[in-house]
Amino acid sequence: MKLVVTTFLTMDGVMQAPGGPQEDTSGGFRHGGWLAPHFDETLGEVMTARMGQADAFLLGRRTYEIFAAHWPGVDNADDPIADSLNRLPKHVASRTLDRVEWQGAELIDGEVPQAVAELKKRPGRELQVHGSADLVHTLAAHDLVDAYQLLVFPVLLGSGKRLFAEGLEPTAFALTEARTSSTGVTVQVYERTGRPEYGLVGS
Question: Is the CB of residue 82 less than 8 Å from the CB of residue 76?
């Protein structure tokens, strides 16, 4: 399976607590819910289409708990995103949880990078990561991400958890999809192509 990270971002790269004020207040973050005023029909279509490509999900503890508190109560027949999340396998990376109760969810056993590398060898289309900032940092640091779907919102926050950390392996990507919502959100899909090439401008 291809590992695809989908994340909502501000213009300065913050991915923390897009959905609500109490979603993730760690580090004293006070800007939760910055996504809500900008979510429109286009973004709903984008997320539904992406979820339809999943054959499994990979979630960090906080994102798992947020999803597990909401999606099991949504009727699969009325919501294709609920159908994907409730029906498909969910692999949860956590150092603190000793069990997970959402149907189809299981805790990752052992070290996350090695376990995820094995998951990627399984047949299927996409192993999708949504949110899960700390997990994404671990995956990127171990060179495990094959593609990013970035939804960039016209907001600057100046603080919060960011998608990319210092010290990552240099990697090149190709832009394979791009569109813009009615509220100015840009949706970009970048597929990994290898290592960057270097040159001299104008030569």
Answer: yes
CA distance 149 to 42: 15
Q: How many residues does the chain have?
A: 203
Q: What is the pLDDT of residues 111-144, one digit of tens each?
A: 999 999 999 999 999 999 999 999 999 999 999 9
CA angle 9–12–15, rounded 5-degree value: 30
DSSP string, 75-90: -GGG-HHHHHHHHS-E
Write out the E strands in 88-125.
Answer: 90-93, 105-107
Contacts for 82 with CB less than 8 Å, ≥ 6 apart: 71, 74, 75, 76
Question: Do the strands 2-9 and 90-93 form a parallel or antiparallel pair, or are they unpaired?
Answer: unpaired
Tokens of 189: 């899909």
Burial class (CB in 10 A: 0-12, 13-18, 19+), 141: middle
**C-alpha–C-alpha distance, residues 94 and 195, integer Å:** 31
Please state the pTM of the whole predicted model.
Answer: 0.93
> 190 is written with which tokens?
């970048």
Burial of 199 (0-12, 13-18, 19+ CB in 10 A): exposed
